[in-house]
Amino acid sequence: MSGMRARQSMTFSAFQRTALRALAALMMLLATSVRSNLVNDEDPFLPVTQDETVAVGGVVTLTCSVKENDNSSLQWSNTAQQTLYFGEKRALRDNRIQLVKSTATELIISIADVQLSDDGEYTCSIFTMPVRTARATVTVLGVPGKPVITGFDDAVVEGGKVTLTCTSSGSKPPAKLHWYRDQEEIQGRPDVVESNPDELTYTVTSELTLTVNRSDNNALIACAVDHASIANGDKRTEQPLSVLFSPSVSIYPESDLPREGEKFFLQCVGNGNPEPTAFVWRRKDAELPPLAKVDGAFLRFESLNKSDNGVYECQADNGIGMGDITHTLLVQEAGVKPADPTAMSTSSGVDHAVIGGVVAVIVFIMLCLLIVLGRYLIRHKGTYLTHEAKGSDDAPDADTAIINAEGGHSGVDDKKEYFI
Prior knowledge:
Layout: H1 2-32, E1 33-35, E2 52-55, E3 60-65, E4 74-77, E5 83-86, E6 89-90, E7 97-102, E8 106-111, E9 120-126, E10 131-141, E11 148-150, E12 156-157, E13 161-171, E14 176-181, E15 184-186, E16 192-195, E17 202-211, E18 220-226, E19 236-240, E20 243-253, E21 264-273, E22 278-283, E23 292-295, E24 298-301, E25 310-317, E26 322-329, H2 341-388, H3 398-411
Parallel strand pairs: 1-10, 2-10, 12-20
Antiparallel strand pairs: 3-8, 4-5, 4-9, 5-6, 7-8, 9-10, 11-13, 13-17, 14-15, 14-18, 16-17, 18-19, 20-21, 21-24, 22-25, 23-24, 25-26
């Protein structure tokens, strides 16, 4: 039993010794490798580097520097820990990588035509005792391709819906897509991001659905890519919308003052998509005049006559729909000049002034007559009442007064009454 305990004690001691040795080795490894991107004022031999960002196809410059050097060499290594430059000596045969500057305290290299595979951490080392290192992260941006818009294959009838799709590939990190109608930004559906197989880039897709009207015809719909690797507007695709709509119609006369005996025409103009090609002329409530001829969009009169007066209608058809409008034709007599609108306006003003004056005089005279007539009626009404009361003035009582009034009124032949 004691022997077993002794063996266990020896095994545990051996395990402790092995663990202590491993810990000591780890401490030595950490002591011989100092890694930092920051300047340590207490260690002038510590390398200093800086992270860089570059787009695919660009040039990136890597700089490594120290404050002091004890004649040790600086070295740059790539993401696979392959030595690129050891001092001024090229170690990797890659013509894209060039030496920019090499001194005792600084090593600068450049990488041209950067590819996505160049993305990662680069290491700068100085072979002092212990070896000191610093790392620089190179971020390579995948440049998005020019956006492609689909969905414009067929024209859309007014009031219908159109769905457009914008796609851009090759971005890293994923790009953002924006929709525009002419210069105004409009909202599409959220972007859909997909990673490209066997690549480090992404394909981004966005959809836009519009309900169109005639004002959208020939409007420029644009899709623009927003990404750190390009300037705003560098990657943008525009395409006009084509909207089909029925025509709106107008009639234009050859002259605003058509005269008898003259040649004359009415022109029918339809604005639609497509342009109207079929025109129908009618005269409301009557047949077209015998000397009026239909010539497509024109209605031509060989010789105007008063009988041509009337309301004319034009109907235009472009296959999508029809539009119509009317025009009233008033033929002027030959040799009669149209009235001067200014003279007519002045004459009308004078007539109104004369009429106003006459009305005012008549109203004044009527007021005067009413006053005189009123005064006359009031005076004669007083005289009638005075005569009516005679015979009752000296009566001792009311009954006598009534008898006297009745007798006096019937017995006096020469009393007369006048009513005006």
